[in-house]
Structure formats: C-alpha cells, structure tokens
Amino acid sequence: MNDTNLDFIREIVTADIAAGKIQAPVTRFPPEPNGYLHIGHAKSICINFGIAQEFGGRCHLRFDDTNPTKEEQEYIDSIQEDVRWLGFDWGPHLYYASDYFEQLYEWAEHLVREGKAYVDDLSADETREYRGTLTEPGRESPYRNRSVEENLDLFRGMRAGEFPDGARVLRAKIDMASPNIMLRDPVMYRILHAAHPHAGDKWCLYPTYDFAHGQSDAIERITHSICTLEFDVHRPLYDWFIENLPVPWRPRQFEFARLNLSYTMLSKRRLLQLVDEGHVRGWNDPRMPTLSGIRRRGYPPEAIREFARMTGVVKRESIVDYALLEHCVRAHLNAAAQRRMAVLRPLRVVIENYPEGQVEEFEAINNPENPAAGTRQAPFSRVLFIEQEDFMEDPPKKFFRLAPGREVRLRYAYFITCREAVKDAAGQTVELRCTYDPATRGGNAPDGRSPKATLHWVSAAHAVPAEVRLYEYLFRRPDPHAADDFVAELNPSSEEVLTGCRLEPSLANLPVGSRVQFERVGYFCVDPDSQPGRPVFNRTVTLRDTWAKIQAKDAHK
Ligand code: ATP
Ligand code: MG
Asked: What average pLDDT does range 517-527 have in this prediction?
C-alpha cells in the first residue's frame, strides 16, 4: 500500500506495520446471525476484507452467535452467500463464537474465582432499577458480596440446568457508580433453555454479546477489531475483560461511523418487521436494502464495493444520499450491460405501406460503450409496438416524439410518419396507422434529414410477453429512521407491476440475474419469478443520474 489518501484505520494499520507491531493485519467481519445482511454490513465487509487484502493479511468471518432465540441457520447460510457474492473469501477462517463457549465459560469461572464476577438473583426489573441512570449512580445488588464458593457453586448449577430461565445471571463485578453504564456490573451470562443453531442443545447458559465479542477477537488474534461508533462506550468494558483474563492476545478496537442511507432503513430488527408484517416480498424483495434484495434488484457487487469506497471510513455520522448508490450502479452497468429494446406500455403501430408477411432483420449494437460486445439481429415487420408515452395526439411545444403527421426514426430501422390515431369507444388511442420511408433503411435518410426523436420498438409478431416490476424508494421520506411510526412512511408506490410488456426476442430466456439496459428506459434484471418464455424483469435503476446532476450544480455554486 502506498496510497497517500489513507483513511484513519488504514493509517493506523500502516503505522503498526512500520513500527513492527504486526507483520500483517488480521481483521474479521462478526455478524450476529439474526437477520439478512444489509448494505451497511456491506460497508463493514468491504473495510475488513479490503484492509486484509491490501496489507497482505487475512479476514475472518465469525458468527457472534450468542443469542439462540433470535438466530437461525437460514441467516447463517444467507450471510455466507452474501459475503461471497460481494466478492470476498474467508478461506479456512470461518468461525463461530459458540465454538468458544467452553473457553468463555472457563474464563467466566476464572473471574468468579478472582472475586470479579458474581451470581445475581435480582429480577430483570430490579436489575434495571438498580442500574441507575446517566445522571444517577447505580446501587449494588444485595447478592453482590456472595462468597467465591457460593458463586462457583451457583454458576455451575446454572450450567447444569438447575434453574429456570431468568432466575439468575452472572455479572462482572466492576463499578455500580461508574459514569459509563456499561461498567455497572454488566451481565456476562444468562440462563436460556433453548437449542442453538450451531451448538445444538449443549448449553442452557449463554454468554452475552459483550462478554463473548472481545474474547473471541482475542482467541482469533485479531489485530484490528473494527466496528461502528456505537461500540465506543463498550470499549472500556471489552478492555476490562481483556485486562482481567488470561487471554492469549490483546486486540485493539477502532470505531468508524456506520453507514446511513436516505429513503431506507439499515436495521435488521426493522427490516425483519417489514418482512414479518408482509409489507415486502421477503428479505430479498428488490426494494429492500438487504444484499439479497439488491442482488435480486440487479445491483452489481462491483457497484457496492465502489459505493463503500466512495463513502469512506470516517468518524462522523452522516446520511448518504441514496442517489449516490444508484450512481455507482449506473456507472457500472453503463459499461457492462448490453442494450436491448423493450416496450413497457405497448401501443400498436401498423405500417400501412410495409408488405404483409415481410420480416427484415436489423443489426443492433449491444453496447456502444464496448465494441467487443458485438451486435445482434432485431426483427422488424408490419405491426410493431412502441411506448404509449412516445405518442401524443396534441403535443405541446417541447414534445418531439410521434404525433399525427410527424416523422420519427425507429432505432436501427426506418423513419415512420404517423397518419392516423385509431381510438376505442372510450376515446383511448389503441393503434397508430403509419407509413415508412423505404429509403431510410437502417435509420438514415439519403437526403440527410434527421427527425428530432428516435424511438425504440419491438415487432409484434416476434415480441416476448413479459412482466416488468418498476421500483422506487421503499420509503417516501428521506429520513424514515426519524419517524415515530416508520411503517406509516412506506412509499405506497414503491412497486408498480406491469404485466403487458413486450420485449425483443433476444430477451426471452436469459438466466436469472442477467442485467440489461432497456434502451431509453433503464437498467433491468431478470427476476427468479421468471417462467420459460415469460420473463419477469425488475427495474434496477432508471437512466437519469440525479446524483451527477446535484454534483454538477454544486460545482457551479
Ligand atoms: P443492525 O443495526 O442492522 O441490527 P447490527 O450492528 O446489529 O446491525 P451485526 O450483525 O452485529 O449487526 O453487524 C456485524 C457488523 O456489521 C458489526 O461490526 C457492525 O458494526 C457492522 N455494521 C452494522 N451495521 C452497519 C452500518 N450501517 N454501517 C457499517 N457497518 C455496520
Ligand atoms: Mg449488533
């Protein structure tokens, strides 16, 4: 690494290597398997795996699985799938905090023997009451001064299953008057007669996240324990455990500001609520900020990694504009996605002077940004579809597309002129009668005239019927996190399903997950709901780059 623009964590790693403290960093991504990963987690993954890669170290994937009541194998599997999809590899370094439960238990007994932990019988309500507040010190539990023998005996009884859930806890004996509430005798173990998705039913006693997390880092010899800012108040507690236990290694913790994104919500708990209450199609709904959702939506992993890089590693909280994420997606797809023609809201066009039964194939460019992507053939015939919105009976001044008497170019094909709009009983335009100019074959006129508009089209006889789902922001306000009732802020038009779409034939049977640009319309991705010959496409992102526009405006200020 010789980048001069290092973020503060990369600077620390660089300095630690230069000072000979470490040879290479060992980092980890430590999710609790209690939900699907979201784009905030992606940022943490990119930082941890990215630093390991750049400095020749390694990054572990470790499940901090201390709460069996909220954790499931489904989440363990999805997390691994998502990290791999993002493009990272933990090699042999897949770990579970639950694999350390025996060691953690021994360390807990060590603290009991040292007189630094005790079994407490206060109820949950009493514990809360004794804890005090930010302005008032806590009070010591009447059980705080139990003898070491009694504590050991009770703690072993807890492990042996002698007590019901919630009857007792093990607490660290630190300081009930500490200004840092985390240090007011935090709970280390609670009784939970519940099977664990990884450890099975070996345990009825589970360590808290706070007791397991730092020690797990120590066991794995993590050099830089990178986490989000809300953990800075936990750091003194993590340090206390490490100082008071015979751990093999002292990890150091560094905090950065979590990613917040406008118009969405990055909290597993709240995302779970949206899933459970049926507001979305599941964890992988294309509107969800989960990695499985944005994958289904069509966001490429390269774009997510670029987004993580652009948002940086900083200490100050902020809300990143969702438009920046879309900008990264667009930038990648512009270079990578092939162009196709697709009509979302079809309007029938009959070319009256085009011979019945004739079909011509026109060569269409797959990607103007990438000549290597080649060309394909698009069939043209007498009856076509264009977009309803590309025609106006009575066009305003700035509308240059099709109107009665007006000529436009059909991309790659011919110029056509609208002769008549046919209406149904309700006065809706249902068909356009047009003529074409055979001299404009391929989309150019020998006399050099050039219509102001070029439209996309599909041949009716060759078109593939499809469903297309248009997506907008999941929430209607940029800061749903600030709402009293965030569910009430869901955007009622976040999904629009169009069932009568018509696509060019090359779009019939693309593999699920394929990404294309529908010319003039946006980027789209094949959904798993697709059936053979009847694809379903999700709109990944529109073509309009609002973020680039904002940047340009700011630059002129
Ligand atoms: P949530 O707040 O969504 O419930 P969490 O923090 O409880 O998430 P964990 O499974 O504990 O989820 O997170 C694993 C790692 O991802 C942690 O190191 C955490 O700091 C990091 N992380 C979680 N959310 C974000 C975010 N929005 N931005 C950056 N990192 C995040
Ligand atoms: Mg957490």
From this structure: 98
Q: Nearest CA to 294 among 41, 486, 49, 508?
A: 41
Q: Residue 101 has which token pair?
A: 């439960």
For residue 428, the one-letter residue type is Q
CA 531 / ligand 1 centre spacing (Å): 36
Helix (H) or strand (E) holding 26: strand 26-29
Residue type, 97: A
At which residue do the structure tokens 């370094």 appear? 93
C-alpha to C-alpha distance for 401 and 418, rounded to whole angstroms: 10
Sign of CA dihedral 33, 37, 43, 48: positive
Domain 268-338+466-555: CATH superfamily is: Ribosomal Protein L25; Chain P (2.40.240.10)
E-state strands within 229-298: 252-256, 260-261
How far apart CA 210 and CA 205 sit, in angstroms, is 15
Residue (of 530, 474, 471, 46) closest to 256 by Cα position: 46
b/e burial code for range 335-349 (CB count within 10 A of at least 16 → b): ebbbbbbbbbebbbb
pTM, two decimals, is: 0.95
* Interatomic CA distance for residues 187 and 74, integer angstroms: 28
Give the integer Cα–Cα distance in Å for 432 and 392.
11
Q: 40: CA distance to ligand 1 center in Å? A: 7
Q: What are residue 420's DSSP bridge partners? A: 433
Residue 32 bears catalytic tag: yes
> Per CATH, which fold does 342-456 belong to?
Ribosomal Protein L25; Chain P (2.40.240)
**First-to-last CA distance in the chain?**
36
220 carries an active-site annotation: no
**Domain locations in the chain as residue ranges:** 3-256, 268-338+466-555, 342-456
User: Which overall architecture, per CATH, does domain 3-256 show?
Assistant: 3-Layer(aba) Sandwich (3.40)
Catalytic residue check, 495: no
pLDDT digits 0-9 by tens, 286-344 = 999 999 999 999 999 999 999 999 999 999 999 999 999 999 999 999 999 999 999 99
